[in-house]
């Protein structure tokens, strides 16, 4: 009797065909402004049991495993591409958004879920925790494919936040699962939390994640530098080395009770900056790994969804999604960023680009695996939130960035640069009294200071290209930075 290879051929044919169709549809859909990730999710849904494909897939454990591995690869790739200089402007706001911002989003969205879905407070706050963080896969890929060049402050804040806020979301999700299970086991009791245990778990998540991520990053950077440029140091082999090392660190950190997501992102940042020349050769291969991870993850998560079950909670879930996008996210952004002197346009854009992707769907699998009450509701709500976020927010990134004026001109487009910065370029070392006398502008209180010093004082925050301040009828804009110092200023006369 001949050996049948159908068990290999059929699943491989189906999986490869789904990826091929998704990529082809994604290439065509991006011309209309739709996200690649949205296409992957929809193709997976159409291939599922309620769609034309009719594939029955309900292995949540496999989806959970694949989702976590894929997110680790995506975060590693994002970390490798993050320059240390972006932390000058992005670290403080990102830390606030990744901690306080996630808590505020969780609380407000949880209140909406309590009212719209008629859930108990522990379960409602669990819904808020599941959808409370932005998604690295969505942010990294959509900012890259949007075609716009954001100013450094906005881009750094969004990218670093998406790489750092997963630990808080995972921590809150696990915490509220514990509360919900305790309340279900003892009806009528609050199922309170031990404050000391909460603090210990939080410190363990962030402590192990940061420590192992930083140490492994230094170690991997040293190893890559020692490999040199020989055959075994080629881009493909080195990329495989980086990915396998990142996944090993992710697994070890998670096993020790830390945040594997934080560890793998920190590892990528350290490695990418300390072994910059060696890492540059792996970025092309890493891009392929990251896209394959996103494709597999979103297709698998789409297959898990049963649209007929989704319809039963569709309208309340849409209400939760709208509250998250229009109330919870904007309020959390304003609370965190207004004290740091972000302007209204920057905060509005960051509020709108609070993209939700695979992370909420992966987190929604946690209560299903833990046997929490009403667990299927969480998955359905998370899917609706992700779908609306990718459809409404993901497809309008370029448009909203342009409308809000947070983009920078292409360095090669002289006409656009003049439109943004003005016709005149002035060295930042020019004394203010000379500048004001030449252009007939009001003299500031300290006329002896340089233009760069005056503009830096007026901004009262780390300057980036595109920042501007008014002096009389003239608008003075940061045109070029030299590290942390302003090098050139553009002037537009009223």
UniProtKB/TrEMBL annotation:
Per the record, the domain of life is Bacteria
The UniProt keywords, alphabetically, are:
Antiport, Cell membrane, Ion transport, Membrane, Transmembrane, Transmembrane helix, Transport
Q: Which Pfam families match?
A: CorC_HlyC (PF03471), Na_H_Exchanger (PF00999)
| Alphabetized GO MF terms | antiporter activity; flavin adenine dinucleotide binding
Q: Which organism is it from?
A: Hydrogenophaga taeniospiralis CCUG 15921
**Which sequence ranges are marked TM in the entry?**
6-27, 34-56, 62-82, 94-117, 123-143, 168-186, 288-311, 317-337, 349-371, 377-399
- What is one Gene Ontology biological process annotated in the Swiss-Prot or TrEMBL record? proton transmembrane transport
Where is this gene product found?
A: Cell membrane
InterPro entries linked to this entry: Cation/H_exchanger_TM (IPR006153), FAD-bd_PCMH-like_sf (IPR036318), FAD-bd_PCMH_sub2 (IPR016169), Na+/solute_symporter_sf (IPR038770), Transptr-assoc_dom (IPR005170)
Please report the name of this protein according to its UniProt entry.
Sodium/hydrogen exchanger
- Report domain Transporter-associated positions: 417-494
List GO terms (cellular component aspect): plasma membrane
> What membrane topology was assigned to this protein in its record?
Multi-pass membrane protein
């Amino acid at each position: 009797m001949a050996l049948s290879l159908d068990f290999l051929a059929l699943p491989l044919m189906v999986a490869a065909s789904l990826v091929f169709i998704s990529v082809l549809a994604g290439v065509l859909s991006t011309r209309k402004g739709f996200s690649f990730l949205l296409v992957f999710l929809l193709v997976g849904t159409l291939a599922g049991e309620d769609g034309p494909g009719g594939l029955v897939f309900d292995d949540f454990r496999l989806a959970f495993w694949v989702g976590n591995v894929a997110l680790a690869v995506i975060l590693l790739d994002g970390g490798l591409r993050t320059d240390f200089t972006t932390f000058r402007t992005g670290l403080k706001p990102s830390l606030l958004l990744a901690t306080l911002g996630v808590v505020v989003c969780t609380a407000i969205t949880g209140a909406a879920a309590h009212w719209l879905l008629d859930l108990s407070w522990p379960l409602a706050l669990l819904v808020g925790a599941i959808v409370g963080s932005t998604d690295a896969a969505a942010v990294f890929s959509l900012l890259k494919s949007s075609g716009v060049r954001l100013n450094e402050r906005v881009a750094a804040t969004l990218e670093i936040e998406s790489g750092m806020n997963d630990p808080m979301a995972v921590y809150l999700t696990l915490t509220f699962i514990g509360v919900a299970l305790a309340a279900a086991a003892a009806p009528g009791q609050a199922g309170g939390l031990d404050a000391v245990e909460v603090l210990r778990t939080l410190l363990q998540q962030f402590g192990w994640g940061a420590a192992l991520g930083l140490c492994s990053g230094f170690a991997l950077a040293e190893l890559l530098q020692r490999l040199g440029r020989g055959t075994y140091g080629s881009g493909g082999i080195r990329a495989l080395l980086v990915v396998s090392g990142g996944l090993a660190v992710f697994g070890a950190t998670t096993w020790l009770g830390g945040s594997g997501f934080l560890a793998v992102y920190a590892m990528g940042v350290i490695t990418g900056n300390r072994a910059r020349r060696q890492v540059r050769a792996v970025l092309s291969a890493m891009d392929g790994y990251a896209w394959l991870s996103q494709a597999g993850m979103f297709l698998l998560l789409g297959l898990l969804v049963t649209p007929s079950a989704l319809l039963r909670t569709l309208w309340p879930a849409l209400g939760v999604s709208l509250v998250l996008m229009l109330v919870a996210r904007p309020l959390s952004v304003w609370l965190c960023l207004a004290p740091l002197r972000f302007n209204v346009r920057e905060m509005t854009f960051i509020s709108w680009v609070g993209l939700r992707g695979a992370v909420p769907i992966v987190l929604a699998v946690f209560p299903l695996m833990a046997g929490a009450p009403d667990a299927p509701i969480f998955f359905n709500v998370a899917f609706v939130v992700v779908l609306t976020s990718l459809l409404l927010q993901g497809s309008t990134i370029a448009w909203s960035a342009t409308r809000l004026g947070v983009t920078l001109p292409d360095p090669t487009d002289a006409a656009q640069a003049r439109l943004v910065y003005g016709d005149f370029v002035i060295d930042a070392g020019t004394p203010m009294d000379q500048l004001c006398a030449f252009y007939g502008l009001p003299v500031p209180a300290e006329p002896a200071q340089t233009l760069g010093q005056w503009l830096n004082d007026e901004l009262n925050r780390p300057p980036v290209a595109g920042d501007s301040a008014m002096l009389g009828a003239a608008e003075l804009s940061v045109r070029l930075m030299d590290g942390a110092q302003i090098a050139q200023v553009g002037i537009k006369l009223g």
